[in-house]
What we know:
There is one protein chain. The chain is mainly α and 86 residues long. Helices cover 50% and strands 0% of the residues. It is built from six helices and no strands. The chain has helices spanning 5-11, 14-23, 28-35, 43-52, 59-62, 70-73. α1 (5-11) packs across α3 (28-35). The N and C termini lie far apart (29 Å).
Amino acid sequence: MVMDIKTYLDTHTTAEATELAEKAGTKLAYLKQIGWGLRRPAADVAIRLHAASNGLVHCCEVRPDLPWPAEMRAGVNPSAPARDAA
């Protein structure tokens, strides 16, 4: 199951969320701002969150507006159209 930041924060403890933030090189407060829609992280932050969570928090869910390669979008959100980079 893949999820966005808000879902992760809602389903994990503060300690787990803090650990994710540290592994991704950011702070828990920033993750909360992303989850609440107050901040939009750069692509590299989305990728670091993806890696730090072992794919649980998927970069395509964190930044669905970016033109991720189709193979990265596969299975993430079947209703979201795959976009190829031009």
